[in-house]
Amino acid sequence: MSRSESPASPSWRAPFARYVIGRGVSTAGTGLVNVVLAFAVLRTGGDGFSVGLVLACSVLTQTLLIPVGGVIADRVDRRTVVVLGNAVLAAAHGTMGLLLLLAPDRVTVWTFVAAAATTGAAAAAVQPAFQGLIVQLVPPTALQRANAALRLVLNVARIAVPGLGAMLGAVFGYGQVLLAAALAFGSCCAVLAGLRISPPPRATKAVLAGAREGWAAFRSRPWMWGYALSGAVAVPLWLAGYQLLGPLILSGRDDGQGHWGWAVSAFSAGMALGSLIALRWRPHRVMLACVLVQLLWPLPLAVLATHPELPWLLVSMLVSGASLELAVVFYETAKQQQVPEELIGRITSLTMFGETALVPLAYVLAGTVADRIGSGPVMWICCLGILAVTVALLPVPGIRRLGRPTESKGATHLKQRVTRA
Q1: Class of domain 10-420
Q2: Residue ranges of the domains in the chain?
């Protein structure tokens, strides 16, 4: 596909559809792993600490290596990075699946830790490259619709796959589910290996110089680093409230586990709804819209802190999911439209690093403090903290004023990319 084509040309859509299919099956593989991993660790003799160790190892490895992954994504063919990264994911989870199936007595917690470290490293390379591929495939003025369509497919996968994975695990066993996940990652490799795409302009500086170039581009945009700094606080607070404190609060109620399952489904449905809204709603001041809709994001934390009845919880989760999805689509669109293509991997990695760096600490602190003063007060702290750092973004001039490119600007942007190449 030639990047000199008009934004209105439909020829980019077929390669983008292939990209969506490949990324969708990779996301399905991740969903299968996530739904059975903790249970698989417990089944092999692990305890709560063991599960936490495995999850923390994956997050920490990804966090430490994501800046390197961003540099790689801007220096190496991104399609190759994505294909090789998914091949590593297929090999790691396929090996674990075979071990659980054929030699379960030989599987230890440290086997899971090694697999988690490997998959965290692969994810650190794959995620920035996935983001960069969108910019290569889609004209600037079509990016929001493309992001919304992509997110809709991914959210449908997130809704459907966990239930399917849980059922398969109960019927066949966790090893078979991990083998199915490996098949999904392998299918992603096969689909994206055939992706036809023109090579973008590449970073030519040394690795350290390239990393410094990415950092300079990142900090020169106050709207971007301000939003990333807000996310570095808001994301850990959200995950501590949503993944840790929410189940703790509901665990003391009748049918609390069932209510939480419905709540998670409502949140995923809200994200799918947000994707549909983003297909139609194209605000001119995209970052201002991003911040304003995000004010609704922590609503379920406030509802959970008051020990809600199920209907209120489901409604709040639906609204929150739609809010978060719209914010993600708007931010990703603004980033892709405003950042030069040859820097997109490094910029993405810096944002992801900030969002995940404090997550392990947030889990530990939230759980420890909740043991002392109760889950409800800690949940309020998480809710109000997210609101505070979100409201703090509104005075940033770039947040209020940043608009989307016009059709003519989008065409000029395409010509500039071709000239640089």
Answers
A1: mainly alpha
A2: 10-420
